[in-house]
Every structure is written in C-alpha cells, then in structure tokens.
Amino acid sequence: MQIAVSSKGFLAAADDSGDVKIVNIAQKCLYKRLREAHTSICSSVQFIPWRPWTAITGGLDSKLAVWDFSKGRTLFSIDYGSPELQNSSSSGSTGQCLNPAFVHSVAVSEEGILGGLYKVCAVARGDGAVDVVDLEYELAPAKSKGPSRAGGSTMSSKITDLGDGSNNQCQRRRIHLDYSMGGHTAAVSCVAFSAFREKGKFLVSGGNDASLKVWDWSKGFSPETSSNSELVLDIDVKKKVNWLCTAPTDSDNLIVCDTSKVVKVYNFP
C-alpha cells in the first residue's frame, strides 16, 4: 500500500497481508519481515528519522504500531478500535462519521521542528479524526510515565491523556482533532506536516469529505487550558482527496491529488 526509504538505506513496503517487508537497498535483499502486529491490510509505513532503526505502521485493523525493525519486534501499539478509545473519541463529537477508525495514513515529523520541542506522528483515521501522538513519550520506559502507564506495550491510553480538552491537569501526550473542532465529516485519507514557513508548524489533512484542513496543531500539547489546537484553514476541493503534500517554496503551496484527473496546487495565504 505504501513504501518509505530510510537514511540508512532501507526500504519499507506495506502490503495487503498486514506484513511489512524491510529491504536492504544496497544489497538488494530482504532484511526483515515485520509481522503479527496487523490482522488486516497494512496501509501505511514510515521510518522515524531521529530513531534510525525504528519504523511506524498503520493498518485497516485500526492499529498503529511502532517497531524496532532491526529485531523485528513491536515497541508499542495503539488500537483505535478498542472500546476505551472509541468511547473517548466519540464524546462531544456530534456529526462525526461512524466508519471504523482505520489508519489510512501516518506522517512523522522531522527532527528539530518547532525548536526541537516535539517528536510526534500524525494519524489519519477512517472515522474522520486526526490524532497526533507524542512518540518519545510512548517510547519512554514505562517507569518514567508513572503507575498509570506501566504494564505492557499495547497502549490503551487513559482519556485524560488524549488532549481533547477534557482534562488539562498534565502535559498532553496525544491530541485528537475531530468534527467538534471543525474537522472532517468522513474518513481522513492522508496527513502531512508542512514543509513551508516554520517547518512542521502546520498539519494538513485531506479526506473523503472533499475537504482540506490546515491545523495549528502544537497548541494542543500545551498544559494551559486556554491553548488548544486550532483549525486555521478549510478548503473545499470538490473531490475526495487521495493524497497531498506541501512544498518548501516561497509560495507556500499545498499539492493535492484527488479523484479528478487534475493535480491541484493551493497557495497557503
């Protein structure tokens, strides 16, 4: 479904079996096969640039998994289809689509964005939501997270950690961007961090509701009650969005591939 290339010369390919093949490009051979984390199609794979032996995958089983691909094992996973996360995501989201929370796309931030404060990934979900996950927190040893996070690698996060505005007593570790914040009303097909202006400041999402959303996402990680992620731009592209990217040019372009035969370029104002 998707391929990615790492700085160490590996290629990762996600496939319909749910497996991910890691290929050594220089030696032109299979290096490792990542399996058993996904029970359905593996739709997305990315390498984590500041952890060169780590990859992240998402699937149509509603799971997100982070791997040490040198050893072929998962470091942690999130099941967006679990009852706990389903209930926390649906609260206060009247109008949210009722599709399963399949993971359609994953974007990983570059190292050093926004002054090096954030090392995150964004997750495009089939239920219309976009999640942003603090990867370094999830990858930290369980003992450093306190008693509520210890005990197993499969994450079933407490609602108070989701950063959806329901609790601001501690630094948020995940934020949830949905319909209640002006987000998508159908499945989100793709996400990307901005390459223009201050790199990584904006998160762009596109969906089957034929819309393009631009988020000032990092505000949602602030522990201050007055700071929340903000939708700064909403574009009606008339067609379902299949893929998008941004260009680091003076014109601040958003490049969109939709279900039409035309590639569209939008200028971020």
Automatic annotation (TrEMBL):
The keyword Transport does not apply. Keywords: WD repeat. Residues 151-167 have a biased composition (Polar residues). Coiled coil: none annotated. WD repeats lie at residues 35-77, 181-216. It comes from the Eukaryota. Gene3D superfamilies: YVTN repeat-like/Quinoprotein amine dehydrogenase. Residues 142-167 are annotated as: Disordered. This is WD repeat-containing protein 53.
